[in-house]
Design goal:
Elements lengths: L52 H16 L4 H22 L11 E5 L5 H14 L8 E4 L1 H4 L7 H12 L3 E4 L15 H14 L5 E6 L1 H10 L1 H5 L3 E5 L4 H14 L3 E2 L1 H15 L6 H22 L6 H5 E2 L1 H5 L6
Parallel strand pairs: 1-4, 1-5, 2-3, 3-4, 6-7
The chain binds adenosine-5'-triphosphate and magnesium ion.
Length: 329
């Protein structure tokens, strides 16, 4: 294991090889002494991309993404690609192979509850670990945080939001509301213009993520070619399949130290079938809400019991707890 303390990873402009003495990383060939001047690795040096401290931390975050989020294979793939790009970029810098920082503004398109906000937070962690962002914060906003009601109100609002997000991620939820096709003089356009300027100026110290439904985001980008060209990474979040939602439910239940007994599992499966056909179904968010209401019914059932309760009672969600839902009515 590598040492946990003293972040021994390379920062641009810092002396190369800040490898802590005694960290015993077998991969570091001939650690160079610390010097005051930036020292690049010699041309015949070798770097182990997979095992330095930063790569290890990034891999931990990627592993959490894998374990905590069901499905989303193509999303996870895209996140890995971006992480790889930055890892290689770091390695190149260590050899003095300077490049301009890549542009990492993104769009996350998909239906409600498909994991966009959750993935944005993981992305911020990864970009911070890789030294691309100063912090791992996600500042989430919607149209109302950026666009004013009156002339002169929009610029300060948008700039304030950007300032709050500085060094991290500005996550614009339902970003398509910034664009109103029916109103040319809508202040949303002004917010977009300011964002465009700042996205260019702050390249490398701010990542803007535009999130929303795919079709409506398409309209936003089609109407703003300048925006489209500054957002190189488009990541799509598909609706979850029935079995994935079932797995998500199991994961959420387990995380909260509950269990479905076997009849409960069947009941939840049926519940999902009913719920998915109804309006406002919001993928994993609906699953989370359903589990919360199930817990309410479990609590009601337990409090009404006229016998002492056990640990197993407290943990178990039963079919009755689920079938109490109005969707079965
Ligand atoms: N693949 C998944 N596996 C496990 N849990 C998930 C998954 N996707 C989403 N969740 C959970 O579902 C909830 C909703 O996810 P999240 O808020 O990230 O979705 P969203 O796409 O941002 O939704 P919205 O569009 O409604 O803002 C969160 O509690 C999240 O942890
Ligand atoms: Mg969200």
């Amino acid at each position: 294991m590598t040492q946990k303390s003293g972040f021994g990873f390379y920062r641009p402009g810092a002396p190369a090889s800040a490898g802590a003495p005694g960290s015993g990383t077998p991969a570091a060939p001939q650690p160079e002494p610390e010097t005051a001047e930036p020292a690049y690795l010699s041309a015949d040096a070798e770097i182990d991309l997979a095992h330095d401290d930063v790569a290890t931390k990034v891999n931990e975050t990627l592993a959490r993404l894998d374990n905590e989020l069901i499905g989303l294979a193509s999303v996870k793939q895209r996140v890995r690609e971006i992480a790889s790009l930055l890892l290689v970029d770091r390695a190149r810098e260590r050899f003095g192979l300077s490049t301009s920082k890549p542009t990492l503004h993104m769009s996350f398109t998909g239906g409600p509850g498909t994991g966009k906000t959750t993935v944005a937070m993981r992305m911020a962690e990864i970009l911070h670990t890789l030294g691309y962002l100063r912090n791992a914060k996600v500042h989430a906003v919607t149209r109302d945080d950026l666009v004013g009601q009156f002339i002169g109100h929009t610029a300060p609002k948008t700039k304030e939001a950007i300032a709050k997000a500085a060094g991290g991620v500005l996550f614009i939820d339902e970003a398509y509301y910034l664009f109103r096709a029916e109103n040319e003089r809508d202040y949303g356009q002004e917010a977009i213009e300011i964002l465009l300027t700042e996205m260019e100026n702050e390249r490398g110290s701010l990542v803007v993520i535009f999130a929303g439904y795919a079709d409506r985001m398409g309209d936003l980008f089609a109407a703003n070619p300048g925006l489209s060209s500054r957002v190189p990474h488009h990541i799509e979040f598909a609706d979850y399949a029935h079995d994935e939602l079932m797995e998500i439910a199991e994961l959420m239940v387990e995380k909260e130290n509950f269990v479905f007994d076997e009849p409960a599992r069947e009941a939840f499966d049926e519940y999902l079938t009913l719920r998915r056909e109804k309006p406002n179904f919001s993928n994993a968010r609906s699953v989370r809400n359903a589990i919360e209401r199930t817990r309410l019914r479990q609590a009601r059932r337990l409090v009404a019991l006229d016998r002492p309760i056990t640990k197993a009672d407290l943990m178990t969600l039963t079919a009755d707890d689920i079938r109490g839902s109005s969707h079965f009515g």
